[in-house]
Design goal:
By secondary structure, this protein is mostly helical. The chain has one domain. Helices cover about 75% and strands about 0% of the residues. The chain has eight helices and no strands. Helix 2 runs parallel beside helix 5 and helix 3 packs across helix 4. The radius of gyration is 19 Å and the shape is elongated. The model has no long low-confidence stretch (mean pLDDT about 90).
Length: about 190
């Protein structure tokens, strides 16, 4: 199965234009560099993540308070994963790297929220009025792990870093394969 996937990626790269994807690689590099360098960096995907997070609360609200609170973070992670699945089905492998970057950034944003669970110093924003909950204070208290908020946040951030590094490596690798398969590159 892995060899078939590799062959499919090779074929896809041979048919794809590296030039139009170069700015996207630069975006991935920039966002990964900024996020890894500053865990509190609020880049291009922060507003998107916030909107999707809040939508998750609304979508899961019919399932009760616990699921409504968990639903925000679940939806925030599900969106890039579902996007990657969609792009996999469409055989757009470079777009999957963008989704990996988005997931890594989402995990970084979530880690910031997690590490604030005990101190609750972050300003809370909500949609629709009413009292805003601190999701991770609620969830960690419910799971009886509030004292480990910082450690869980570090682990979450490290997983996010893996996705960011994966995004950089795979997108650069595919861009290189695209470039090497163009007729002009073979004459150089």
């Amino acid at each position: 199965m892995i060899s078939e996937l590799r062959e499919d990626i090779d074929g896809w790269c041979a048919e794809s234009n590296w030039l139009v994807r170069t700015p996207v690689l630069l975006l991935i590099l920039h966002q990964a560099y900024q996020q890894i360098g500053d865990p509190y960096y609020a880049g291009l995907f922060s507003a998107l993540d916030f909107g999707i997070h809040e939508l998750g609360h609304v979508v899961f609200s019919p399932l009760g308070e616990f699921m409504s609170i968990l639903g925000g973070s679940f939806w925030q992670l599900a969106a890039p994963v579902l996007s990657a699945v969609m792009f996999f089905r469409q055989r757009d492998y470079f777009a999957i790297s963008v989704c990996a970057m988005w997931l890594g950034i989402s995990l970084y944003r979530m880690a910031v929220y997690m590490e604030d669970a005990r101190t609750m110093q972050l300003p809370l924003l909500g949609v629709g009025g009413g009292e805003a909950y601190h999701d991770w204070n609620y969830l960690f208290t419910d799971f009886r792990v509030l004292q480990w908020d910082y450690r869980i946040a570090i682990a979450t951030r490290n997983v996010g870093k893996l996705f960011l590094v994966f995004a950089v490596i795979t997108s650069a690798w595919m861009l290189w394969k695209m470039f090497r398969s163009t007729p002009e590159s073979k004459t150089v």
